[in-house]
Amino acid sequence: MVEIVGVIGIVASMILIAAELRKTNEIAATRAEMALAAQHNILNERRATNTDVAKLFPKLESPEAHLVTATDASQIRGIARHQINFLRSVQNAYKDELISRRVRDAYVLDFAQSIDRWPGIREHYVAIYRETEALHGLEEFAAIAELAAAESTPGPASRD
What we know:
The chain has helices spanning 2-49, 51-54, 56-61, 70-95, 101-117, 122-131, 142-152. It has 160 residues and is an all-alpha fold. The protein is elongated and about 85 Å long.
């Protein structure tokens, strides 16, 4: 009888530990999603509250229609680096099972769409990709890899 009570106590303790561990994992996952959302929204918040940042967006969206100064290019490079670092955070959170595939895919899609939304950032994405070997081969950066490959592929020869 004492042995049965001991076994029941051990099983109950294991169930309690498992429940606490599950709750801890859920809290960690929620915190990771919240941190990613905050990091993702930094650029939007800065665009809304900082006129110097806001002035860059027409240059990102239509670089051929605007003078892009060396300072602008440096700031755009900073935005590109922020976006890439953010996507690396997403990749790490997914790898550590802190976010779902659905959440990861939404951020990856948003990143890929930024290449279309912001033609003025493309060359910066490509430059950072080329100089950062750790990005090569990662599924999250496939859109930049394709862009880099397209830029290094010679076009048709012209006939003069």
